Amino acid sequence: MSDIASQTSPAAGPLAGLRVLELGHFVAAPFCTRLLADLGADVVKVEPPGGDPVRQWGQLVDGHAPWWSMHGRNKRSITLNLKHPKAAAIVRDLAARSDVVVENFRPGQLDRMGLGDAALRAGRPDLVVAHISGFGQDGPYRDRAAFGVIGEALGGLRHLCNHPAGTTDLPPIRIGISIGDSLAGLYGAFGIMAALWRRDAARVGDGRGRTLDVALTDSVLSMMEGLLPEYGVLGTVRQPAGSRIPTAAPTSAYPCADGTWIVLAANSQPLFARLAALMGRPELAADPRFVDNPARLANVEELDRLIGAWTGTLTAADCDRRLEAADIPATLIASAAAVAADPQFRHRGMVREVEDPAFGRPVLQAGVVPHVADDPGAIRWPGPAVGAHTGEVLGELGLGEAAVAALRAEGVV
């Protein structure tokens, strides 16, 4: 594909001026770098000549995935065949101009390409290198293949994402997104900023580069709340709880008269008292079965039956209005259509219309998180075409049009 003129505009956000080189594919590393790019970092994404496989994930429109519009946004894409002998030198030159390299190949693969940590730091000794992999850079599982679902399963999440034991023979439920990859990307971004702080901060900076080792499995396990402490102290194995949580009640989804569901969480004493009054059953707050959280947990089946009987007499919208008026945490379960129209998300810029030439019309995208009030990030452009910035980025390395054309002819880019 021929290069296009740069779509970049002056970077906005607290990370403006930070240069990140992404040697990533699929979800985890690209999600990490997208977070950094949203806050202003200049992310150069290296893709194989055919592009990141995730470009073809999800529903396609004329060969283009709407997801890519958001997943690849704010990045500059260059094509580079890392299997070609001349590619490693170009990556090293790019790394020398970068603050951070993020990659999610299998452990050891970059070393075999001549792109191990020492090689990447040859021209930038203080480079931060973030490795994101399924099981980490060491350990007995180091070389096993993994995707996000594998991290979710081994990390304990898949065991908990199920209906209570004995209620169904269906397999454990998968969360509807690649949450294991995204968690690893979040931890990667957090680790990168910690390493940059230690390198560059005026008070504590030591000028050293650091290597980060982020595993999908570790990232999921880190989110498992009391799963390990409870097992270690009590020997208990936390079990799936369906729509409930095992630590507080009532917290669940309840059926409404129009066939939809509402989620409510009235799991403190004042909240439960307000809910009982709203239900027309104020005596429930003093009922020995429900008088405190341990009692409500012990009698959760009956408690949820009573709440469900009340919600079942109301439409979800009516139930939501009543719960809001009583200041009880509650919400309807939002579909994509409901999210897109939600006034709260719209007000906060969390649903944005982004012009994307691949579709000839705006694409809805999620906004930038976190919101930095006095220096917000921005969606500067959607996910670019494959290699859209190859000539531009290689030009920054001092390669002219003829040199880039020669690399194309050789199959390097």
From TrEMBL:
GO molecular function (one): CoA-transferase activity
Cited Gene3D superfamilies: Crotonobetainyl-coa:carnitine coa-transferase, domain 1 (3.40.50.10540), formyl-coa transferase, domain 3 (3.30.1540.10)
InterPro entries associated with the record: CoA-transferase_III_domain, CoA-Trfase_fam_III, CoA-Trfase_III_dom3_sf, CoA-Trfase_III_dom_1_sf
Keywords linked to the UniProt accession: Transferase
Pfam family, one: CoA_transf_3
Protein name: CoA transferase
Provenance organism: Lichenibacterium ramalinae
